[in-house]
Write a structure and sequence with these properties.
98 residues, Alpha-Beta Plaits, alpha+beta
Length: 98
C-alpha cells in the first residue's frame, strides 16, 4: 500500500545558483508525475524552497526518489520528509487550485 509524504525543499544557495538547475528539476518533476509518485508540488512563498506531496511504497523509496532531485544532487537544496496518513481530503482539489 502506498504511503504519503510531504517533502519540504530548502534552498542552500542563492536563487541564481538554484535557477541553473531549474530545467533539470522540472524534468525530474515531470518524470515523477508521470510515474504516479508526485501528487502536487510548488515553490514556497517567499521562494526559499519548495513543497512536494509524494506517494511511495516506503520511506526509503521516497528518500531515494528525492535524493535524485537535481537540486539535491547539486547541493543547492536539501529536503526533509514528513510521512502522514490522510484522514480526509477534498474531492475537488484540482478545481480548488484553479
Amino acid at each position: 500500500m502506498d504511503q504519503l509524504f510531504i517533502i519540504l525543499l530548502s534552498y542552500l544557495k542563492p536563487l541564481a545558483q538554484v535557477d541553473q538547475y531549474l530545467p533539470a528539476h522540472n524534468e525530474f518533476l515531470r518524470k515523477h508525475y508521470a510515474s504516479g509518485h508526485f501528487i502536487v508540488s510548488g515553490p514556497q512563498v517567499p521562494r526559499t524552497g519548495g513543497l512536494i506531496m509524494l506517494r511511495a511504497q516506503s520511506r526509503s523509496e521516497a528518500e531515494s526518489i528525492m535524493a535524485a532531485d537535481p537540486f539535491v544532487e547539486n547541493e543547492v537544496a536539501s529536503f526533509s520528509l514528513v510521512q502522514f496518513r490522510a484522514a480526509d481530503f477534498s474531492y475537488d482539489f484540482a478545481e480548488v487550485m484553479k
